[in-house]
Fold this protein.
Amino acid sequence: MARSAPESKVGAERARMFRLTYASPIRGMTPAKLVNVLDAYERGFLREAALLVQKILARDDQAKPCDSKRRRAVTGLEWEILPLDDSPEAAEDKQALEACYNNLTAVDALNQNKRGGIRALFRLMMSAVPLEYAPFEIVWQPDAPGGLTAEFRHLPLQFFENTTGSLRYLASDSVLYGADLDEFFGEGGWMVCAGEGMIEALAIAWMFKTPNGLKAWVNFSEKFGIPGLHGKTAATKGSAEWEAMKDALTGFGEDLAILTNESGSITPIEIKNSGASPHRDLVDRMDRAISRLFFGGDLATMSKEGSAVGSNAQAPDAEYLVRDDAAMITDTLQYFVDRRVIEYLRGPGVAPKAFFKLLPPAELNVERELKTDEFLIARGVEVAKSDLRSRYGRSEPEAGEPLASAPVAAPPLFPAANEAAASLTRAAFRSNARADIVAAKRDAFAPLATRLAEIIGIADPTAQDAALLKFRHDLPRFAREHLITEPEIEAWVRANGTAMIDGAATAAAARKTSA
């Protein structure tokens, strides 16, 4: 089981020695050196690659906001403890886990000023996305108020090596091979969050962008930003007039003002193709590559390649990534934390009957949910008002607050001249399964009602029959514009078309009889 004493195995001295011996991995980095760093990373020696990418994430103006945005998408999610059943054991496990997660502390071992609660833990765990691994020391605190909790100390990846296929802790920066995590931290005293990892891709993109792109772009701008000058003078070399022209050329770069006599002139030197730098496209390409690494598409503030300015190409992919990140954190905490808390509560080997879950963003298809709710309510299925309010994000009205009312019912689809005709019409509509379509699409069907009313008003029987036939002919086109599928169209016309025409004809006949 976890250690009972709230003491860290990685003391302040380890962090102090690292800082004292730290050397920037960026200084002097070349493509050849980067190859060696990445080869060492593949062999399991993580130090140099981890240091390099950490510095890229801290300095690069594209990588830093991408990393920050990916982390914030997760730290804002809600979490809960879910019981497996209604048993007393599940309720007790839920209570113990809630106490643990509500009272835990997360801290950066290299900078202990950075500490917080569970959202700080999520943020630190998200370093596994770019760095592949986010290692933690777990310092359990059994005597904390509310029950067992822990301090999660995020350890930098450069404190570990992976030559055996499992992370091992390096007690100092001078050793190549580390200690087994269970042996060094104790069983249950550590946690490793494993993510997708993008160390190699980020390092390569940075190499093309910064040393090969931005640096060359700056040099190009310094060299060709101000044109060269060609001074001409009739004076003898070394003479006072010659030296005066020389001083004028020198001073031009400082104050852009010169004075020459009529025999002297200064002409700018134009260098062909110096107006546009090729490095800008390279830098832009690498910025897009970094964005794609984090989100699968360009950032919303950047345009797509081509003419689609201001696109947000990464939005659909980003939704899936947030869900994947939430699942990564959920799986890690269930494995390393939930089991230990319940074993502490009930004994070794006891499986938890409640578990932690970081809730992914709600995915609500409003149109589909509305149709489902209408279908259920129309068929007598009980749906709680509180459930509807929760699903659609509506709060319960306060006492005395004005309430919204249902819309006034629309008039009948077509008028009935007498009770017999009205009964015939109602029976016709009750006998088919499309009555709910008429009710749901009443506004869309209003033109039909208007047209039927006009046909009923035609006094000439021959003209009225012709109008009814034309109306019948136009029904399929109308249905295609307002319904969904061909089978539905055919069924609607077959079920309702005849009834509507019969009703109109009956009403017209009744009107003429009464006249």
